[in-house]
Specification:
Elements: H1 6-83
C-alpha cells in the first residue's frame, strides 16, 4: 500500500490533533461541572451550618429569657402541692 501524499498526511495529523483537543475540552468541561457541583454543595453546607448555629443561639437566648418566668410559675406550683399534704 502506498503512503498517502504529504497533503493527506498533514490533514490526518491535523484531524488527530483536533480530535485530541475536543476530547481534552470535553474532559475539562466534565471536571469543571463536577467542581461547580462540589462548590455549590460546599456553599449549601456552609449556609446550613450558619443557619443551624444562628438558630441554636436564638433558642438558647429564648430559653434563658424564659427561665425567670418559669421559676415564678414553679413557686406557686410548689405551694399548691404543699396544700395537698
Amino acid at each position: 500500500m502506498a503512503s498517502p501524499p504529504a497533503d493527506r498526511k498533514g490533514v490526518l495529523a491535523e484531524e488527530g490533533e483536533v480530535s485530541g483537543g475536543l476530547e481534552a475540552t470535553e474532559s475539562l468541561a466534565r471536571v469543571s461541572r463536577a467542581c461547580r457541583g462540589r462548590t455549590e454543595a460546599a456553599q449549601a453546607s456552609s449556609t446550613a451550618s450558619e443557619v443551624a448555629n444562628k438558630n441554636r443561639h436564638q433558642i438558647r437566648d429564648d430559653h434563658l429569657r424564659s427561665w425567670p418566668s418559669r421559676r415564678s410559675w414553679a413557686k406557686p406550683s410548689s405551694k399548691v402541692q404543699g396544700w395537698g399534704r
